[in-house]
Amino acid sequence: MTTLGARPWYKPVLAAGEAARLATIGLLVLGSGACSIALPVASLVEEPDTTSSVASKPPSPLSPELGTEDWRRAKAALAVALDPQGSGAQVSWDNPDTKVKGTFTPMGQPFVKNDQICRPFLAHVGGQAAATSLQGTACRPSGGEWAITEVTPAKRP
Question: Is pTM, for the whole model, over 0.70?
Answer without folding.
Answer: no
